[in-house]
TrEMBL record:
<feature type="binding site">
    <location>
        <position position="96"/>
    </location>
    <ligand>
        <name>substrate</name>
    </ligand>
</feature>
<dbReference type="Pfam" id="PF03309">
    <property type="entry name" value="Pan_kinase"/>
</dbReference>
<comment type="function">
    <text>Catalyzes the phosphorylation of pantothenate (Pan), the first step in CoA biosynthesis.</text>
</comment>
<keyword id="KW-0963">Cytoplasm</keyword>
<dbReference type="GO" id="GO:0005524">
    <property type="term" value="F:ATP binding"/>
</dbReference>
<feature type="active site" description="Proton acceptor">
    <location>
        <position position="105"/>
    </location>
</feature>
<comment type="subunit">
    <text>Homodimer.</text>
</comment>
<comment type="pathway">
    <text>Cofactor biosynthesis; coenzyme A biosynthesis; CoA from (R)-pantothenate: step 1/5.</text>
</comment>
<feature type="binding site">
    <location>
        <begin position="103"/>
        <end position="106"/>
    </location>
    <ligand>
        <name>substrate</name>
    </ligand>
</feature>
<keyword id="KW-0418">Kinase</keyword>
<keyword id="KW-0630">Potassium</keyword>
<dbReference type="GO" id="GO:0004594">
    <property type="term" value="F:pantothenate kinase activity"/>
</dbReference>
<dbReference type="GO" id="GO:0005737">
    <property type="term" value="C:cytoplasm"/>
</dbReference>
<keyword id="KW-0808">Transferase</keyword>
<dbReference type="GO" id="GO:0015937">
    <property type="term" value="P:coenzyme A biosynthetic process"/>
</dbReference>
<dbReference type="InterPro" id="IPR043129">
    <property type="entry name" value="ATPase_NBD"/>
</dbReference>
<protein>
    <recommendedName>
        <fullName>Type III pantothenate kinase</fullName>
        <ecNumber>2.7.1.33</ecNumber>
    </recommendedName>
</protein>
Length: 259
């Protein structure tokens, strides 16, 4: 009955094992590996967990990485399924020009966010921020339609771009300050304000569009670093991609299992 959910980002693979493919599932085990260490999974972390009966993943790291993950999954007699963004799934409608070109991590996280609001009886517009290797900021209306979103470089990419494009910006990580007075603080605050400012702008856009105050939900490996510097009130939910994978699995496998 157990269900393995996998999120393969551009830097790290995150996995979580649940007792069933359903929104009320219990977490049994979880872990994370940098992409360069994927080959250790079958003989390492995954050798210590019970064989899952279903596997559902989302991959944005490319086909070669996906194949390396599939090789590790050969440890068990299970055929993994991979989420491809579609025009509608699990209560969310996709407004992208070409729905399948939307990153599956964005799609899955939005499904997780929508599910979370509905569970609380909050049918309100929502801005979803995902802070990973890249940062995405999505707008979802009160009816569950993804209106559109933005992609910007993550903190690490911003810093590396500045380091490689200039002579004088090789400095240690600094602090976030309102008025930075040294290079380290100026760079760290610049990256942080870029992300916080982009979120503020999307919240303004969505408020203007919908005439309602949007909820703001944040997720991703570096979400906790951004949380203290946000200018809009936001809720940090570390597990949003897994919540989304559970919601999709619930629709795909759960109904059949319960019948
Ligand atoms: N102070 C900071 N604030 C925001 N982001 C930061 C900060 N410091 C580092 N980062 C960036 O956060 C990025 C994402 O971190 P992490 O690898 O934990 O996220 P992730 O969700 O696992 O990423 P992915 O899913 O893309 O693999 C890193 O590339 C790092 O550059
Ligand atoms: C934007 C990222 C890198 C965020 O992880 C990923 O969702 C992706 O590769 N997306 C494909 C392009 C798009 O979403 O429009
Ligand atoms: K991600």
């Amino acid at each position: 009955m157990s269900f393995l959910a996998i999120d393969v980002g551009n830097t790290r693979l995150k996995w979580a094992l649940y007792d069933k493919p359903a929104v009320d599932a219990r977490l049994l085990a979880h872990g994370v590996q940098f992409l360069e260490n994927i080959e250790t999974l079958a003989e390492g972390d995954w050798s210590r967990i019970a064989a899952p009966s279903q596997v559902l993943g989302c991959v944005v790291a490319g086909e070669a990485v996906r194949r390396r993950v599939i090789e590790q999954l050969e440890l068990w007699d299970v055929t993994p399924q991979w989420v491809v963004s579609s025009s509608a799934e699990a209560g969310l409608v996709n407004g992208y020009d070409h729905p399948s070109r939307l990153g599956s991590d964005r799609w899955v996280a939005m499904i997780g966010a929508r599910q979370r609001l509905i569970a609380r009886g909050q049918r309100r517009p929502c801005v979803l921020v995902m802070v990973g290797t890249a940062v995405t900021v999505e707008a979802i209306d009160a009816e569950g339609r993804f209106l559109g979103g933005i992609i910007l470089p993550g903190h690490g990419i911003m810093l590396r771009a500045l380091e490689s494009g200039t002579a004088g910006l090789h400095v240690p990580t600094g602090e976030v300050r309102d008025f930075p007075t040294n290079t380290s603080d100026a760079l760290t605050s610049g990256g942080t304000f870029a992300i916080a400012g982009a979120v503020q702008r999307m919240v303004d856009n969505l408020r203007r569009h919908s005439g309602q105050e949007p909820a703001c939900i944040m997720t991703g490996g570096a979400g906790w670093k951004m949380a203290p510097s946000m200018t809009v009130q936001s809720e940090l939910v570390e597990s949003l991609i897994f919540d989304g994978l559970l919601a999709i699995a619930h629709h795909r496998f759960g109904a059949a299992t319960a019948a």
